[in-house]
Amino acid sequence: MKNLVxxxxxxxxxxxxxxxxxxxxxxxxxxxxxxxxxxHCLKTEYYALAAGTASDHEVRxxxxxxxxxxxxxxxxxxxxVDKKEVVxxxxxxxxxxxxxxxxxxxxxxxxxxxxxxxxxxxxxxxKSRETYRTLNDMPAGSKVGIVGAGLSGIELASExxxxxxxxxxxxxxxxxxxxKDFPQRLSRYIEKWFTDHGVDVVSxxxxxxxxxxxxxxxxxxxxxxxxxxxAGIQPSxxxxxxxxxxxxTGRIVLTPHHNVPGNEHVxxxxxxxxxxxxxxxxxxxxxxxxxxxxxxxxWRNETLPDKMPEMKLKGVLGxxxxxxxxxxxxxxxxxxxxxxxxxxxxxxMYKYHNG
Length: 355
What we know:
By secondary structure, the chain is of the alpha/beta class. 28% of the residues lie in helices and 28% in strands.
């Protein structure tokens, strides 16, 4: 029997499971999924968990059950591609015939002194829970700084404003306007929402130092009771330590068939993969679809195409609290209740098909 090992139960490997189970897995192949927690986590909704507007249960989806699927809950400490072996923290090691690495990302602090030690995170469910406890235990009038005005920072700031209208919230944005790579209409809409709801956006920010009770932006010092970091990501430590070729961001370089060059048994999906698009759940799912196609062809000893189809993303949707939102879909900017409704619908459909 061949053993297909999936590392990480994120969006990419959940799509692999959805494609192969229950009826499209060859008789001579079994699957082993390894993850630290016993459920799939909706990472795109961690901002709501941290803000206190979604419960822990709402951001979890059970893993599927199947007689040919083995679940191991453990921490992965190393991947040895030469020995075709994955080393676990408490369960020894497991061997694989084919491997899909989907271990996601962690915060990147850009060598800012104090950032790793004194800021909170929403990059894992465990860290999001800790951030929730900190933000929601603070007394009225506390000052909260959110570093990074990308999608995560925007959604966290808006959701926290609805959850805790008593807090003094500052969102530090490195660019001249939020979402500077998107149409100005979206930026203006988001910035107006923040102005109307009392969230202070600090543009052209450059955070140079973080201390337990303050943050340094250029020459200015801002007293803070809590700071959340959403200003960059990097592949997980285990992936950064793998002995394979990486790009300048630390992501693994792949062939057109999504495997490591020179090793057709090791695939990488999601945030750890060097791809022409920015990391996202949608991209991980699109990539997983192609990985399954490649695996099935290789299992059947079929010839692979020289070039895989171009991965086309449908767009971006974001929330501004529970009633407003924004998006860029089919090269068109959308705002307001329609955008928020669309995002809620996409989330519901995802949970319905995977739950």
